Amino acid sequence: MGRAGVAARLKGKGRSELSRFERPVVVQVSRHAAERVVFDVNDAATILLRDLTRETKKRKTAMDACLRVLRGESHPPAARRAFVAAALEAKILRSD
């Protein structure tokens, strides 16, 4: 466990709390799919990997940002900004 993980445990916060967005992001990955509320970096990373299959610079930037948060090297707001940019580019963003 890295320093961020140890510090989080000492403060009583689990990893999911460390990767949570302050405000959720709402996306709709296809015309017939229900809207999805993205609460944290894990949700964002899953959508980037499974639903946004077109390789773009914004998608790659968002995937890298999510990975940095999951490794404890960055903070959720950076990943959220990158995810919103990728979702906007892919035209799946419903609410930011």
Describe the structure.
This protein is of the alpha+beta class. The protein has one domain. It has five helices and three strands; from the N terminus they run H-H-E-E-H-H-H-E. The chain has helices spanning 3-11, 15-18, 41-50, 57-70, 76-89; strands spanning 20-27, 36-40, 93-95. A three-stranded antiparallel beta sheet has the order 2-1-3. Helix 3 (41-50) packs antiparallel against helix 4. The relative contact order is 0.20. Residues 1-13 have low confidence and may be disordered.
Radius of gyration over C-alpha positions, nearest whole angstrom: 14 Å
* Poorly predicted parts: 1-13
**How far apart, in Å, are the first and last alpha carbons?**
32 Å
| Strand order across the largest sheet | 2-1-3
Let me know the number of strands: 3
| General form | globular
Elements, N to C (H/E): HHEEHHHE
Total number of helices: 5
Report the biggest beta sheet as strand number plus sense, adding barrel if it closes: 3 strands, antiparallel
Structural domain count: 1
Structural class: alpha+beta
Q: Percent range for helical residues?
A: 40-55%
Assembly state here?
single chain
* Percent strand: 15-25%
Average pLDDT rating: 87
